[in-house]
Amino acid sequence: MRWVIGDVHGMLRPLEGLLEAVRNADPEAHFIFVGDYVNRGPDTRGAIDLLLNLRPATFLRGNHDDVFDLLINGDCYICHPTAMNPIAAFTWFMQFGLAETLMSYGVDWSELDLLLQKPNHPGLLRVLTAVPQSHRNFIHSLESVYESETFFVGHGYWNPDLSDSKPSITQRLIEEEQLRYQLLWGRFNGQQLARKKHWTRTGYFGHTPVSNYRPDLVPVRAPNVVLVDTAAALSSIGMLSAVCAEDGTVIQADREGDTMVLAPE
After folding, report:
1. Which of 43, 113, 153, 154 gives 12 a disulfide partner, CB atoms 3.0 to 4.6 angstroms apart?
2. CB 154 within 8 A of CB 203
3. Bond preceding residue 167 cis, omega within 30 of 0
4. Which residues pair with 265 in a beta bridge?
5. Mean pLDDT, consecutive 10-residue segments, the chain of 265 residues?
6. Interatomic CA distance for residues 265 and 263, integer angstroms
7. Angle CA 193–142–63, to nearest 5
8. At what angle do helices 86-93 and 121-128 cross, to 10 degrees?
9. Alpha carbon 39 to chain centroid distance?
């Protein structure tokens, strides 16, 4: 079966516990990640090392990953207006957990602090040499969307008023830059979640913590949409979640990697 995994954000222990629990429940599991592997949590390097050897799996791109791609590879899927170049991306995302990511690669905080005070390209390039080529390749090769006959998976948002087929989401993303931007950076509001979508399939998304919509940290289910970012790195009680696209089972791991299974709704 196929399992959609929420935003990892450098949380290695929950990731290890979650993958083990899913495999125990489903030895043939295919993992589909909604993106955001980097930033906020303490061990981006360890998380990506683990994912590099995970099979079978599909790895989608999140907005944090896209900014990191710009930093380490000089290119990205769709640049945010606030981060059109590596220096701008560095100074902006130091506010959103980039320091934790770079320190997981062995960069010293004092060097990052100095670079933040006086941003410059040579200093940034020197800091980024800590990121190994295998991790650069992983980030740069992340896919934009996963599509099957019954569901699709993206990072952040697909307009409820747009069709999800004919043409496919994949094709629309190739042709329309604004849709690429919305996919990584957009967020559903409560009214959009609650109403009927112009989709023939169910869409799975991360990016926006479910706490924006409900008090408990479990995936949000609404007409034709499931939100799976349960704030693994944002809160001491945050969870990393996996949702089975076939039967709706939810498995969650806390910060210590301890897991629980929630019956399908």
Report:
1. 43
2. yes
3. yes
4. none
5. 98 98 98 98 98 98 98 96 96 98 98 97 97 98 98 98 96 97 98 97 98 95 98 96 97 98 82
6. 6
7. 50
8. 70
9. 10
Domain residue limits at 69: 2-262
**What's 61's domain CATH number?**
3.60.21.10
Q: Whose CA is closest to 12, among 60, 44, 40, 36?
A: 44
Kindly list the strands in the beta sheet with 220-222, ordered across the sheet, starting from the edge strand earlier in the chain: 146-147, 151-153, 202-205, 225-227, 220-222
Give the 3-state secondary structure of residue 175.
helix
Do residues 128 and 72 lie in contact, with contact meaning Cβ atoms separated by under 8 Å? yes
Question: Would you tell me how many other CB atoms lie within 10 Å of the CB of residue 113?
Answer: 11
H or E segment to which residue 243 belongs = strand 240-244
- Residues 6 or more apart from 118 whose CB is under 8 A from it? none
Yes or no: say if 9 and 35 are a contact pair by the CB < 8 Å rule: no
Nearest to 66 by CA among 174, 147, 230, 185: 185
Burial class (CB in 10 A: 0-12, 13-18, 19+), 248: middle
pLDDT at 263: 77
The Cα–Cα gap between 106 and 16 comes to 21
Q: What pLDDT does residue 76 have? A: 96
CB 39 within 8 Å of CB 96: yes
Structural domain count of the chain: 1
